[in-house]
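protien #1 (seq + structre)
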Amino acid sequence: MSKSIILAMFVIALFFSNLTFAQNSENQTEWKLYKEVTGLQIFSSNLDCNDNQNGIHNRFVNFQFINTTTETIDISWQYEFWYNEKCTTCDKPATVENTYKITLTPGESVEGDCNNTYSSGLKIFSSFINTARGSKLTKFEFKNLEVTFK
């Protein structure tokens, strides 16, 4: 192969790797301890997820759960959300759809990212980045947070 073909292939590969990165770019701020209960630390941070190809730019509150024990733990919780100062989930009963559960082995941690879905409970939609329209998360609380040792 000639050097020009190899160079062209390299440039094309570089272009596509940059395009993929732009679609899933994450701008995450510093982790802050949000809550600590026996054996569990929960940290939060802002997470910007950009899908440039589709024009979707969202900000999330992202969570990191850390098992600080030498035992496996089960964690379950629900959220209460306030969007534009109004609680949208208060007084709603706990159901399978709004109860989140994870299991962490000793010392294990897990966190949300731009690729996981809302159903994991590891991130909460906060606002659109590229428009002032739409609801904005103004407050959230963990509800019925339970840590069970196995």
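ok now protien #2
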Amino acid sequence: MKKNILIVEKRLVYILIFVVIGQTSFAQQLPIYDQYLYNKFLIDPAQAGSDGYTSFNITAREQWVGYSGAPRTYSISWQTRILKRGYKIKKTIFNQTVFTPKNDGKVGLGGYIFSDKNGLIQRTGFQATYSYHMWLQKSIQLSLGLAFTGYHFIINANELSFEDTNEPWLTNNLRRGIFVPDVDFGIYLLNPRFDFGFSAQQLFGAAVKIGDYAYRNFRMDRHFYTFGSYNFSSGNRTELEPSVLIKISEQFRPQADIGFTYIYIEKLWAGLTYRTDGGLIANIRFRYIPDHSKWAALYFGYAIDFTLNEIQTVTYGTHELTVALKFGDSTRKYRWLDRY
């Protein structure tokens, strides 16, 4: 009897180690993206429709390839802007006839679905986003975004090897999973030369849970992102863009990405980023416009992440692939500007 209790306790401790890792490590509680510069919507809901494009993005990330139980993240996102379409005749209080758009072109929409797995912990969910864009000055746009998120949180205990198939833990409700709703908020400033953003994720901290009472102590930390970049023109065809991203959780474990990107005629991007927790990221991205296409462009991106910690000796690095399809790469792109 005593031996069986010790076995159960041992298994519980083993599983709880994975839970603690997922709850205390910033990088593992929420997915990390190396190519966030090309799709900031994944970290800031205010991004939805901010540039006037309608875009679809697919991201696949394999962290620490070759290491058993390493994080894997997959996501598909979409965002758009309800642009100014159609005009109507309207008279002002001074009896002047003017043409005004049927909508003001200030609303953005977006959403994505994702799957994020780290060891025994897996989250599969979605996000639905509403954003509103306004002008502070002629060339500076302020965007606000609010997103509703929901995900299924589960611990895959069946992936463990148990000596006793009748062990009580195998029938525990914890491994059945729960649905967790939450809310994200974001702010974004956009200018032709620079951008700046702030977002707060998991604002409820998973305080609202739909599931078994056993999860009453389950909690997710709030996470805060601050990011910005500035674009320097270095010639007729090339640009240089330094950038920074600072991430902080409620446990106050700050992490920063400091990067530098070379841009060639808006067709090729090549960058290098240093991550303060011990990582070096190289990424490349290029744009392809199909023949006879005036409205769509394809983007392909790849990033490789080398950690400077000891785990690198037993892995083949971290790899991330992105594919994006953007519509509106013509005059439609600029209709969101007030002057249009």
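Residues 1-28, 331-340 have pLDDT under 50 and may be disordered.
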